[in-house]
Design a protein that fits this description.
Blueprint (H helix, E strand, L loop, with lengths): L2 H4 L2 E2 L5 H11 L4 H6 L3 H7 L5 H10 L1 E4 L6 E6 L8 H16 L1 H21 L5 E8 L8 H15 L4 E5 L2 H8 L4 E7 L6 E7 L5
Length: 208
């Protein structure tokens, strides 16, 4: 384990509830969550439940780190061979719970998004790679370098494995931010049947 990774805090199942709250606050203004929950009050109450399956799957199959025990920020990293999660696996890892909490209307509205990003991921990265499935920093803690710490530590580890990293983002601001870490845009589209922009990005290994 590299020194940067040692400075992070690895999450377990007992941290899922707290991590979902952090992600829920961080993604309040994200285009996907605003599309699925147009009402601000409903969005504030429900968006966190969409992260339950992400954190459960990540902790079970990948590596999930926070900046500290206080969870100023957290990131979910999925290793090769585990990057493509089946619908059944998603439901088993908290999807049923998320559906009950968020409501059928929101889940139905989000289906075009889920139906596009999965096949796009397979098409754009048909090789071994790590998947940065989610990264979130609490709004009150943003601008303090927590996101950079979460990224750099795992990038160093993955570079040592000589593997690329794939991610998606729905904002131009985040796209520009990831470019600073060596990610390149491999596809930019408006997700069909929605008005949501999507940037699919890939970072090639920098290890010589």
């Amino acid at each position: 384990m590299n020194d940067e990774l040692k400075n992070l805090f690895r999450l377990t199942k007992k941290h899922i509830k707290q991590a979902c709250k952090v992600s829920g606050r961080a993604f309040q203004d994200d285009p996907v969550t605003k599309y699925m929950f147009p009402d601000e009050i409903e969005r504030r109450e429900k968006v966190l439940y969409g992260f339950v399956a992400i954190y459960k799957y990540g902790i079970r199959n990948g590596e999930v780190y926070a900046t500290s025990e206080n969870l100023e920020g957290a990131a979910v990293w999925i290793p090769p061979k585990k990057v493509h999660q089946s619908m059944w696996s998603m439901l088993r890892n908290g999807g049923f719970h998320a559906m009950r909490k968020t409501g059928f209307k929101a889940m139905k509205k989000g289906m075009p998004i889920y139906k596009y990003i999965g096949p796009a991921h397979k098409r754009l990265a048909p090789f071994d790679h790590w998947y940065l499935q989610s990264i979130a920093v609490d709004p009150e803690e943003q601008g303090k370098g927590y996101g950079s710490s979460l990224l750099r530590a795992m990038i160093t580890k993955i570079d040592n494995e000589r593997l690329p990293i794939y991610l998606e983002t729905n904002t131009k601001k985040n796209m520009v931010y990831y470019q600073k870490f060596g990610f390149e845009v491999v596809e930019h589209v408006i997700i069909p049947k929605t008005e949501i922009p999507l940037w699919c990005m890939l970072r090639k290994s920098q290890k010589v």
